[in-house]
């Protein structure tokens, strides 16, 4: 099924997936399924809070729990930045919550920051799941290019 753990390509031993997950339940199920299929792989969860629901604070705690199956979590800025702060998902709080529960998360200021971190820190066998309900600025192909390959889709 398109955009549900769809393999975009492999480069330098890293497999890049595209997934439409943008709700905490979908994020958790996607990551749990990938973990079950690849128990020994390092999983990177790259998340863009873009949809109307994922940009809202109402899911703050749920998102923190949803990333538990990932080894590394990179969170992009909230796409709908015009939401009032009291209603908007707090990326810094999400990162703190994931880290305080034993995970490894960080925020990223841009797509280039996300790509740079993965290019610098990747190792063969890593799985990168890019989760957004939008195009995420073409990050999939940019990541593959930076890792030195062309897409398989």
Word description of this protein:
- With 153 residues, this protein is of the alpha/beta class.
- The chain has a single domain (20-147), classed as Mur ligase, C-terminal domain (Protein-Tyrosine Phosphatase, Chain A, Alpha-Beta Complex), CATH 3.90.190.20.
- Helices cover 33% and strands 19% of the residues.
- It has helices at 24-37, 60-66, 91-100, 111-121, 139-147, and strands at residues 6-11, 14-19, 43-47, 72-75, 105-107, 127-131.
- A six-stranded mixed beta sheet has the order 1-2-6-3-4-5, with helices on both faces.
- Helix 1 (24-37) runs parallel beside helix 2, helix 2 (60-66) packs across helix 3 (91-100) and helix 4 (111-121) packs parallel to helix 5.
- The longest helix has 14 residues, at 24-37.
- It is globular.
- The two termini are 13 Å apart.
How much is the average pLDDT?
93
Regions with little confidence, pLDDT below 50 for 5+ residues? none
The rounded Rg comes to: 14 Å
Distance between the termini: 13 Å
Q: How many DSSP helices?
A: 5
Q: What is the CATH level 1 assignment?
A: Alpha Beta
| Fourth CATH level, the homologous superfamily | Mur ligase, C-terminal domain
What is the CATH topology?
Answer: Protein-Tyrosine Phosphatase, Chain A
Largest sheet: 6 strands, mixed
Count of individual beta strands: 6
Task: Please specify the SSE layout and strand pairing.
Layout (H helix, E strand, L loop, with lengths): L5 E6 L2 E6 L4 H14 L5 E5 L12 H7 L5 E4 L15 H10 L4 E3 L3 H11 L5 E5 L7 H9 L6
Parallel strand pairs: 2-6, 3-4, 3-6, 4-5
Antiparallel strand pairs: 1-2
């Amino acid at each position: 099924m398109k955009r549900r753990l769809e393999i975009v390509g492999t480069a330098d031993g890293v497999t890049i997936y595209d997934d439409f997950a943008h709700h905490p339940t979908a994020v958790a199920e996607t990551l749990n399924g990938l973990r079950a299929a690849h128990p020994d792989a390092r999983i990177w969860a790259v998340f863009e809070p873009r949809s109307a629901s994922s940009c809202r604070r109402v899911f703050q705690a749920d998102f923190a729990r949803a990333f538990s199956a990932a080894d590394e979590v990179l969170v992009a800025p909230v796409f709908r930045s015009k939401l009032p702060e009291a209603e908007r998902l707090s990326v810094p709080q999400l990162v703190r919550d994931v880290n305080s529960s034993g995970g490894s998360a960080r925020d990223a200021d841009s797509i280039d920051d996300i790509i740079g971190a993965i290019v610098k820190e990747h190792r063969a066998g890593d799985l990168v799941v890019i989760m957004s309900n939008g195009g995420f600025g073409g990050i999939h192909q940019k990541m593959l290019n930076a890792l030195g390959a062309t897409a398989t889709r």
